[in-house]
Structure formats: structure tokens, C-alpha cells
Amino acid sequence: MLCLESAIRAGRAAPWLYDVLALQMRLSGRPSGQIARVLKSRLDFGISDIPQLLLTAAMLSRFEAWEPAIDTLRDIEQLSPTASAELWLLARSIADKSGDTEAIVWSRCGILRYIWDPGYEREHAEAKRTVQELVARLQNSGDEDAAGLILSRLQSASQIDLQITLRWAGAADLDLIIRDPSGQECSFRRRTTPTLGRLVRETGIAKPASGTREEVFIQPEALSGEYEIAVRFALGEVPSGTAILSITQAAGTAGERTETRSIRLGQEDTLLKTLVNKGRSQLPAAAIDDVQR
Question: Which fold is adopted by the domain 46-157?
Fold first, then answer.
């Protein structure tokens, strides 16, 4: 251990040296606070390197340094909350092990806001169930104020400002193309936009040949303004010659409303527009440019 400490003091350090030193300190019975400080020092090798930050948080959790581990994950959230689903899944694991109520709620709200990879439904269901159970326990204990605050956070994280769903029957491939008020386009070519609109489901023409198919676009925090919607008939056959387009705004709130339209399919794209009056996203044009670069 003295050799490791000497190497670090001499400026010959590498991230793995801190990991080995922390392990040696654990084996020699050093205080957990000292071990946490050593592991935090590995961040000097890349304070904005998200994989390195994730690894540091994971190492901190191995030594049960829950608070600095969660602080590191919160740093990643500030850098890029959508950078990796691993951020929120690791946050959930560490929060549960720590037993920290605030961290448990924070990690689940992050999952609801930012995880939309295939299988997201399972992760979202677990997140909602965990927070609802926590709210119920607080209510049963008489802490209505704390329960109300957490329930409000859950409702905000679960809200979807705009969801556009295209459904059809038959062995055909239809494309849903969305252009948001800032001019960002979401489609099968680009499933996530800098403004965080995303195509979360795309059935396509793959087997089975029968049954209902769908494409689903969501923007949890939409921009205020006009969204352009294009429905494109790519190939195959839709026996009815029509598709159903549903536009839902403010999903998960008392103001939820859905508009449904029947779309006649043809060689030309069907173009529609919908207006979002109260989008929650205020992402400025400069921020969009930064993401694109």
C-alpha cells in the first residue's frame, strides 16, 4: 500500500491505482471516509468522462460509500441525463442498497423520464410501483406532507406532454415522421432528437404478417408550438387502406386529451399539424446547436 501511495504522490497515478489502493485500505481496516476520498480522486482523470464517472460511482458503492456514489451519479445527471440508461439503473441499485428515501425517489423519477429503450415498460412499471408503495407507507404513518411531495414528483416524471401513435393492420410498413416547433425531425432514420422527442416503438413489416402494427412517438416535455406529422406508406398492403392516428396531450394529468383521426393511405405522404399550447420544455436554440455539435 505504501508503494501505491508513493506512486500517486509522485504523479504516476492511473485510475486503476486508486481502485487497488481503496481495496488495500479496506483490507487494512481504514475508515470508509478515507476510502471514499481515494476513489473520488480517480475523477481527476476525466471529470466529464461519463463512463469514468459511472465506474467511480460503482466502485464507491462496492465500498458502501453511498452518499458520494449518489453524488457522483447526480453529477452525471447534470452533464447529460440521457447519456446512458446505465446511469439510472445504477442509481436505482445504489439507492436501494443505501435505503436513502430521497435517492430512491430520484432514481425512479429519472427512469420514468429518461429510459425509453426496448423493454422500458417493465422498468417504468417497477419505478411507479416502488414510489407508490413508498407514498402509501408515508400516508399510513401519518406523514401526509412528505407523501404529497413525493406523489407530485412521481406525477411530474410520469407525465407525457405529447404522444403520437400510428396504428394499422396488415403486412405493410408505414412510417411516422414528426417535425417539432424547433425544426428537429424524428423518424426511423433518427429515432431521438436533440429536443428529446423519440420514436419508442416501430413495428415495421416483420413477422407475424397479421395483427395490429404501430409506431409511437413521444416527447415527455414537449415544446410549445406547432408539430408537423407525416404518415408515409412505404410498402406492403393494408387491406382497409386506412390507418388510425392518435394524438394525446398532457398524458397522466387531469387535462389529458386525445384526438383520433382516420388516415387514408396513398402514394403521397399524409400531412397533419397539431398545436401544443403548454409544452414544458424551454430548450433554447443554442442548446439544440450544442447537442448537434
Answer: 1.25.40
